[in-house]
Prior knowledge:
Blueprint lengths: L1 H20 L10 H5 L4 H7 L10
Amino acid sequence: MADVERKGTRDEIEALSAAMKTQGHAVAVYGIRSLVAKGGVLDQMRVRGFEVSTPGE
């Protein structure tokens, strides 16, 4: 199951990255756990070179 979940997250990150590179606006909704987990969505977007800020920053 862990491998399936990691693959799903990778696929979601690919889709989000593609959406962020297109002109216009993009909205993504994620559960808080997948966003802030070590290696989660926010970490992966930073690795891909996106500027990510949080309310605490």
